Predict the 3D structure of the following.
Amino acid sequence: MGSKIDVRAEFPILNQSINGKPLVYLDSAASTQRPNTVLAAMDRFSKTSNANVHRGVHTLSQRATDEFEAARVTVQKFVGADDPAEIIWTKGCTESLNLVAASWGGANLQSGDEILLTNMEHHANIVPWQLIAEKAGAVVRPIPISDDCVVDLQAFRKMVNNRTKVVGIKHVCNATGVVNPVCEMAEIAKSVGAIVVADGAQALAHVPVNVKEFGVDFYAMSSHKVYGPMGVGALYGRRELLEAMPPFMGGGDMIRSVSFGKTTFNEIPNKFEPGTPNVSGVIGFAAALDWYQSVGKEEIWAYENELAQALRNALDQMPGVRTIGKCENQAPVVSFVMDDAHPHDVGTILDSHGVAIRTGHHCCMPLMERLGIPGTSRASFAVYNTNQEINVLIEALKNVVDIFSKC
């Protein structure tokens, strides 16, 4: 390989054996592992600053609040937002997308309005819109894709009309790695005044993100997809939209005053952050973004894509194996099917070799239905993977072929 990044030693979880074999972790599209710096940041907070935020005058609370808000600035700068107040802490992309659908959608969608979603969307960017559409009398329509899992922009242009109120776009497809043309789709959506909601779950760890340049109105993020902890994420929203939206949930810290006669709400971002937040998770999220940038975005992108392309080349040489999703701009996700083996059987056999991949529909059942397959086997790369691990995967897949050739 032309490039090499040696950070593997920073990920202690990778130094173990599974079923008597060295762990080969190729499921980073589901959850990336965490480097020591992230683990240390969370541990330090728990040991030295653990307290609730925004509510105490004592030193620990003030210290926790300062770190909590500094983390918000880190995310704001990472995605190119104008204002830290445009960053709302959530449990992850799923909650972020539900927040937009329930709050913005609940306040703005009316009977006959249309919500356009790509045919490759994750269920988290489909089901919330279906729920609110049913209440409002709106309609959810799929944006067609090609056999190579690329959005049909010509068909999309024809679909957009004065009834289009929402366009939902997965920035990077978790099932195939296809990177969608967010800027171009946002421009088309804006031509009819629709809001643009982007699912950035798979994007943060791989491709440059600048919400202002993209022209999106909302951008959902998950920490555990970019070397951070689970159970925490963020939503970027344009200030004027967030200020006009009603709260998503009620509780402490999202209010100005409460009485049985009337409750008034806090300013953003607090209006959308009721209750005790996952403070250590937020700090871990920011530490992950700092670590990621210290390694180098462009270097990581080049390295991961060399790995992914090496695997695609190897799979192309294997009889009875077909990769799913092909385009010029593709993140390091390699999805494939084997003629004689169900994806779940592939995953089980690979696990016996210590190889962890993801199998199934990847929470993209409409995509699988469009492709006419029950699911795929998916190997997804991160900066800690190696070329040697590709060799291990290929040898394990040969074992799958041997087993099913005898059936």
